[in-house]
Predict the 3D structure of the following.
Amino acid sequence: MQKEESTVVLQIPDTQTIAENHPTASRVQSPSSIKTFKQCPRKYYYSYILELETTSNIYQVRGNIAHSVLEHFFDIETSMISLNNYEQHLKLVMQNLLLKEWQNYKEELVKLELSQEQEIKYFEETLMMLFNWTNSFCQKIAKQQGTFQERFKKLTPIRELRYVSQEHAVQGFIDAIEHRDCGVCLMDYKTSSKQNIDEHLLQLGIYSLLYYEKHGVMPKQVGVYFLKGEESILEVDEELVEMAKKEIAHVHENTQTNNINDYPKQPGGLCKWSSGQCDFYNTCRPFEK
């Protein structure tokens, strides 16, 4: 798959201008901000209006590391790889990339104050996830025709592109844009243990909308690479896109003010759990009247 300059280099409009020109938008939303509002409007208020500081955790950091590894994976030199040795070679490449990115994120990892045993555990878990993805990729290589280099090129996606919709005042980063035999497929990487694609329909619908607005063609499929499991694919239909439009509009309509009283608390299981709590738990005090 050859990257075309006209496809890869996107002219990104200024988000402040978009928000100012949109009839109901006070800011440009994203899949994350919309999900946050649906979970708890008060959390949205703290995150996106007051912009209070949040605390990082190992799951967020290693998720970023895994994304970086997969983004750089397709930039590797393939001239020395053949159909006789590609599986072992690609796993070695993946391991080396993870070591490099783990070191690049060392400052953030140090802030987490993990023990040496904990850091080794999370490193090994991340490596296993990436090896799991590599196994699936190797299976796709085996089904292609031509030399290894030709197969690798065909399976190389366009990566980490930011799209911004002027019409809907929403933006998002698409992890991988693949050109499959059936057409364009938009894929996202997830490192979570849960592997239910239904939980990501809003994000995938927004991606479909963004891609269509930019290119004038609706993607054929959207999906998630669950790095702890398998990939999951959905056909893009009108219902998915209309759902995304509806959710975007709903959040715009309900986030036009900076008044805390317009963002009610929604106390529940996402406030505090056995191993942690919401970043704003002490500020919000959700269970107090």
